[in-house]
Every structure is written in C-alpha cells, then in structure tokens.
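pinned: reference chain
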Amino acid sequence: MRLVRSGCLVRTTHIILTWLTTLILFLHNTDLRKCEERGELLQPVLFGSVVLLSVMMYFTVSLMDPGFVLSDSNAQSTIEDDGELEKMIPHRESSQGRRRCGYCFLMQPMRARHCKECKRCVRRYDHHCPWIENCVGERNHRWFLLYLCVQLLAVSWGLQIAWSGITFAPTWQQWFIQNGFLLGALAVTGIFSVVVLLLLCIHLYLAAINTTTWEFMSRHRISYLKTCDSEENPFDRGVICNLWDFFCVCRTVAWERVHSKRSNGAV
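pinned: its structure tokens
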C-alpha cells in the first residue's frame, strides 16, 4: 500500500509539473504565443503533441511489467523451451548464475535481481527508477530509453521556448516580476534537459555494450561476472548486434545459454 501511494504521488507530481510548465509557455509572450497570434499553429500543435507523447510514454514505462519473475517454472522456461540446445550445454553451466532468491524464494534466471522497492525479482535487472516508481528491466528497458529520447526533445524544446519569452525591464525588481514564471519554467526545463541527456547517454552506452547499470556498478559482487576479466563482458556481441537485440528483439532471452556459449568459445 505504501508503494502504491508513493507511486501515485510521484506520477501526480510529474503530471502537474509537466502541464504547469507547458501552460506557462503557452500563456506568456514566448515564440508559441507569438505563433498563435499570427495564426501559425504548426509549432504549437507539434510542441503540444511532443509533450502529450512524453506523458503517454512516461505512463507506459511506469505502469508496464519490467520483466517480473513470476514462478520457478517461469524462470526456467527459456532454457527448457529448446531441448536440442539445452543438451549442448552441460547442466553445471546451464545453471550457472541461477540461484534461489533470499527474499521471494523464487529461482532467479541469470541477470535477474530482487528489487527491494518492488519486492519482486526482475529479469535483466537494470535499476529501480524513483521518478517512474518502477523497475527498469528486460521488458521495459527499450521503452525507457525511447521515453528518454522523447522527454529530452520536450524539455530541450521547452527550454528554448522559455528563453524566447524572457523580456528586459528597467530594474531588477520589475524584471523578476515580469519573468518570474518563465524563470521557473526555464529552471525546470534546464535541469531536466541536463539530467535526461546524461541518462540517455549512459543508457545508450550500456545498451551498446550489452550490460546493465547493476552489472556495471556492482560487477565485483555478481557471481557470473566474477570469473571474467575486468574488461570482459560475456554478453557483448558487438555494438551493432547489441543495439539490434536491445531495440528489436522482444522475446525473453536465456542468458545462461549466451553466457555458456561465450565461456565455451573462450576455452
């Protein structure tokens, strides 16, 4: 119940901040307002559409299943689905990286981790994002990155629009009175532009090398990575293949099989 209340509070805050900032940009003497007055509606409609799309993608990423491990059979299904390939992998290696979770007592597939906030195990766990109040995992990671792209477009565009509405005044006091709301919008869009850009760059880099935030930050604590060299990533297939798999492959991946193939190939 506490998690539900926290999620509602965060999402409500996001919606209020988004539409309040958008309203300020439309009501003040910005490029948007000038376009409306001239009857040129293309830019206002496009900007409003981008903001609406960012809100829709926010809720998509926030509410969708990130890849929860539902049961022991669910955790093992990706290996058992292909009997011929399973026979090619020694049993000891196929079970490497899988262990029983000490919190929910389910068998974790490789690259899964228990999230203490969601109280569930998540496949290919990346991190728990407090702003969407949801985990980022195997099922929603690509959508999270796409959301960051749309959000970056919205806030950077909003930053330019807010700057266009700043006017000069004879005194500092009058200047603050005239531009107070726009300065607030400028601060919000400026801060979010920097944060979202950094997040987007980080997650594009992680997707390009096929690793997760959890694996990148806690490599020394993860059993299936301890045996690898410091620069070795058993899941890396090259930038092109990694990005293709990240954005275009929607099925659940048996990471035990991938890890085993790379390990056997290295021997």
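why pinned: The longest strand covers residues 113-115. The longest helix spans residues 172-208.
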